[in-house]
Every structure is written in C-alpha cells, then in structure tokens.
Design brief:
globular; three-stranded antiparallel β-sheet; 597 residues
Length: 597
C-alpha cells in the first residue's frame, strides 16, 4: 500500500497552481491538462524499461511492459507506475479519483468509497469518444436534468468527470431510449466541453457558471468534426495567433478543443474575415501531429505561449507534414549514432516534437537532403506508423530511449507485410509452399527451432507470392510445428490455404472493386440529378413556360433540365441496385477464405 500512496501522491500534486519559473506561468493554471511533474525526468539511453513513467498515459491502451499498481481486490483497475503484461490503461488519473475520492481517502484513512468505485468502474464500458456507440452496445446514458441541449454523457464520463464537479446534480439518467442502430456521441468526450465542465463548476456563482457551461456545450455541439483535410474556408470560422505567424490557420473546432479555456486562449483570435477572404481552400494546422503535440506539451508543462509560437513559425516555414502527403526533396533528421534506413524526421516535427521532448541530442545536428518524395516518421501515412508511434510513446513515457531507436533500426527498413495481397519481386523466407515475408519472419519466426531448416532465407521470388504467417491462426500452427519439430503438416495446410485463396480472394476482390466503381458512378449521377434539379427550378423562375417536357418513365417537367434530372436520378438508383447485387457472393467467398486464413 505504501507504493500506492507514493505513486499516487505525485498525481495529486498536479492539482496545484504552477510555480513562478522562467518558462512557466506565474498565474494559477486552471487547465485540467496541466501536470507540473509530467516529463520532469529526461529521456536517456540509460533508463531501464522498468523506470517509473514520466507521464500518465491515462485511458490510452499501453502496449509496452511497465510497472503497474492496483488496489487490493481491484486487480482489473490498473494504476500506472507489479510487473504485468502490456495492453492496460490507467484508470486512476481521472478527476473523480484525483479530485474527490483519493483526497477523501487520505483524509479519512478509509479506502471504502474508492474501492467501491473501482469495483463498479471495472464493468463500465469505456467512452468511445468520436466513434460513438449504438443502442446494441448497451451504454448507459445521462443527460441534463432540465433537458437543455439534448447533450448526452456516457456512464464512464459521468462517473469519471461529471460526478467530480459541483454540477453533478444537474445531470440525471436519460429517459429517452436509444434505438438499436442509433449512434450517439458522448458530449463530454469533446475536450472543450469536458474542460468547460471542470473549470466553470469551480466558480462561486454556480447559476451563472452553469449558463456559461450550457452555452459552451451548445457551441461545441454545433461544430463539425475536423478531419484535417482541405475544405472551403467559408464553411467555418478560423483562428490565428495574435502575434502573426504566416500561413497558420486553426478551425474553430480545433481552437475550442485545444486552446479555448487554457492560458493560451487570448493569444489567438478569430480572423473575422469577410466572405471574399474565405473564397479559398484551407486545412486546419492544429490537425498536424507536430503542432498538436507541441500544444499538448506546453499545456501539460505550463510553458509560455512563445514555445508554441516558435514551433509554429518553424512549421509554417517548412513543408507541411500533412497526412497523405509526403515531402519532396526535403530535409530530414536521422539518428546521431548511425542513420536508420527508410527513416527520418522532417524539420517541422524536429522543432515541435523532438526539441520539445528534449530528445534532439539523439539526432544529428543538421538535417540531410533526401531526393524524391519521403515520409516523416510522424506522418500518419508513413509505413509502420502504428509501430513507430507505439515505440515513440514508450520512449517518451518511460524515458528509455532504446525502446524507440532500437526498434526503428530493426524494423523501419523492412518492407511492410503484404497481408493477403500478393507481392511480386520480393524477398521471402520459409519454404516454397509456405512463404514468409521479412516482417513476419522477424516478428514470429527468427530464433525458433524450425528457422534454420527453412529452404528460403532472404530469397527474391519474381512471381506473385502470398505471405503465410501474418495471421494469428497461422502463427499458432507454426508454433505447433515447432513444438512437434516437423513442418510437414504446416506446409500441407499452406498448400490447401493457397488453393482456397485462388478460388476466393481474387473473385471477392473483383466484386468489391466493381461495387466501389458502380457506387461512385451512382453517386455521381445522383449529384448530377440535383444540379439539373436546381437548374430546372431556376429556369422555371426566370423563364416560366406553359409547355411540359418528358414522358411516362421520367415524368413531366417544366424544362429539359427536369427531364435530365429525372434520368440521372434513375441511373443513380439503378447503379446502387447493381452495386448491391454481388454482396451475397462476396460475403460467402470472404467467409470461405477467412475460415483458413
């Protein structure tokens, strides 16, 4: 229990105001993200994987091994920083515990309420955030007692956040029944709404504060989700730094979620542009991973806004690291200890991520020019992005740099497993009838008892070849073969699997591709129909005619535009009907393949 108190006392300190430092704010920081002890220890090459975490991963699933604690009798509720398997989330660092139950437990020397909460919370489904939840998911919902807004809070957010505030009495179980296929999104999952709830509920004038919260929630609920794609600028309001940083634009959704009601809110302002100024295409820069990470670090550590603006200036003057877009003839940083193949960090991400995390010393002092189009390691479209992010988070949270650099140097240069797609002119391991790609060999085969008896070792095969080791099922069969010391049955199954593949996968792929093309064509016809319909209405208004156009199949209309609209609509309907035609066959073939995949 003493370890629990020691570990959690540090989290409790995160509620205190920031002290006056050369970099931090001298004011009380209300931002719930602020944690003065976060990232306090440096990332080094000497830290061990078992070192205490530098920052709580909160509800994110942790995919690496580290030290965890739990309250006796509540083993399912992990507290970050008992050697235990990966795949856990920290269930302690939520406002309900850190601001209410844990302080009360320390004051009364009684863990009863905290234990009851943890036992109950273990069975509560986690908030699904932007993905939402349908009625069949069985989520218990809460709403506002007075019925304002129509906002909903899932049970997890109600337990973790709402009940930690003085506004909790204004929420109640929702009486409205959710339809089985009806998808609802938890309003408290919006960062801005959650932050507003926690900050405004501390105010003395509770009634005025509640009105402000309702208005804040209403404002955020009315805004669309930002996907980081280019959109017509007139679709939303935009924000920019008051201290001018060229070519930097934040949409209102991201401004509210990441900057509003933080110490940086007043350092950014609505552009207040007219219609003509918005007649262009724009993408929100806060959807860039580098800028978003910089803002998160600044908020967590309580840094001055200049840290954000300096990084933003570098981002604005460098090629953008947008999802889906590589950088052509750009400059990239690589490891100081020796470059890793097929790896690099762009200048913008170096300034806003590496420097802010204090790990720039592990990289070369100058970026190197890379000819052609290359991808930054922090770009969501780069190969192995999930693995890169997982090991980056491990390094930044544990302080053990080897977790990242060692993995990158081993895997970044490996071609990505083609999965159930065929690959030609590629290197393979295994046997002629049981081929294994380099990635799967590294992750599942290397060092096993059958590895040395394989016919193929890094051998190029010109023809199209299928990887036999990417699925859990095939890896299980390989493990059985190793235990038996004989790959005969495994190879025989692979031959049967290949025959099934040839009979199913090419066919259902073709059906799906045809469906996709038919659906796209059908949608194009539907949009064309709407355009003609608009033209018909305009024609009827500008030059009304007493004549009618059309026939019995498309109906009669006031202009030829109406006829064209009806014809395009009918084509669209036919196209969608055709696209649905092969669904049953494709689904059957896919099931046959997955039975052996």
């Amino acid at each position: 229990m003493s370890k629990l108190i020691s570990a959690v006392s540090q989290i409790q300190l995160a509620d205190q105001p920031a002290s006056i430092t050369s970099q931090g704010y001298s004011m009380e920081i209300e931002d719930p993200t602020y944690e003065p002890l976060a990232f306090a220890t440096p990332v080094t090459a000497t830290n061990t994987p078992s070192s205490p975490l530098r920052v709580c991963p909160q509800t994110r699933v942790v995919n690496y091994q580290t030290t965890w604690h739990h309250l006796r009798g509540c083993a399912d509720v992990g507290i970050c920083s008992c050697e235990i398997k990966s795949g856990l989330t920290c269930r302690f660092n939520v406002p309900r515990i850190t601001k209410s139950l844990w302080p009360d437990a320390k004051q009364t020397a009684n863990l009863g309420l905290l234990r009851d909460y943890m036992l109950r919370h273990a069975s509560v489904p986690a908030c699904t955030k932007a993905a939402g939840a349908v009625g069949t998911d069985g989520v218990k919902w809460f709403g506002l007692a007075a019925g304002e807004l129509g906002m909903v809070a899932c049970e997890a957010c109600h337990e973790d956040i709402v009940l930690s505030t003085t506004f909790s009495g204004r929420f109640c179980p929702l009486k409205q029944v959710q339809g089985a296929s009806e998808r609802w999104t938890c309003t408290i999952s919006y960062s801005y709404v959650s932050r507003a709830l926690q900050i405004l509920s501390r105010r003395r004038d509770q009634d005025t504060a509640w009105v402000e919260f309702v208005e804040a929630a209403r404002k955020r609920m009315a805004l669309p989700t930002c996907e980081g794609k280019e959109i017509n600028a007139i679709q939303c309001n935009w924000y920019r730094p008051r201290q001018s940083v060229a070519n930097l634009d934040f949409c209102e959704t991201c401004y509210l979620d990441q900057l509003a009601m933080t110490p940086y809110a007043d350092d950014f302002a609505d552009t207040a542009e007219g219609v003509e100024e918005k007649l262009c295409m724009r993408a929100c820069d806060l959807q860039l991973i580098n800028l978003g990470e910089c803002v998160y670090l600044a908020r967590t550590k309580g840094l001055r806004v200049q840290v954000i603006l300096q990084a933003a200036a570098k981002i604005a003057s460098s090629p953008r690291c947008f999802k889906g877009m590589g950088i052509t003839n750009g400059k990239f940083y690589n490891f100081k200890s020796g470059s890793a193949a097929n790896f690099g960090v762009c200048e913008a991400c170096h300034a806003s991520i590496l420097v802010q995390h204090g790990v720039e010393a592990f990289f070369g002092s100058e970026p190197q020019l890379v000819a052609g189009t290359a991808w930054c390691a922090f770009n969501p479209s780069v190969a192995r992005f999930n693995g890169l992010v997982d090991h980056w988070q491990q390094a930044s949270e544990t302080g053990y740099w080897g977790a990242y650099e060692t993995w990158v140097k081993k895997y970044a240069a490996l071609p990505v497993c083609p999965n159930f797609n065929l690959a030609a002119k590629s290197k393979w391991y295994g046997w002629q009838d049981c081929t294994i790609c380099p990635e799967c060999y590294e992750t599942a085969v290397e060092g096993t008892s059958l590895a040395t008896s394989m016919e193929l070792h890094d051998v190029v095969i010109e023809g199209e070849t299928l990887c036999c080791m990417y699925s859990d099922r095939m890896r299980g069969k390989y493990k059985e073969a190793c235990e038996a010391g004989d790959a005969t049955e495994l190879r025989a199954f692979c031959r049967e699997r290949w025959e099934t593949y040839q009979q199913t996968v090419p066919r259902f792929k073709m059906i799906y591709e045809t469906q996709s093309m038919q659906s796209a064509m059908a949608m194009s016809n539907m949009m064309l129909s709407m355009s003609y319909q608009h033209a018909n209405a305009m024609s009827d208004w500008v030059t009304p005619s007493r004549y009618e156009y059309g026939n019995s199949s498309v109906g009669y209309h006031s202009s030829q535009y109406g006829v064209d609209s009806a014809e395009a609509w009918n084509k669209g309907q036919e196209g969608f009907a055709q696209a649905r035609g092969g669904v049953a066959e494709a689904s059957y073939l896919k099931d046959v393949w997955q039975a052996v995949e």
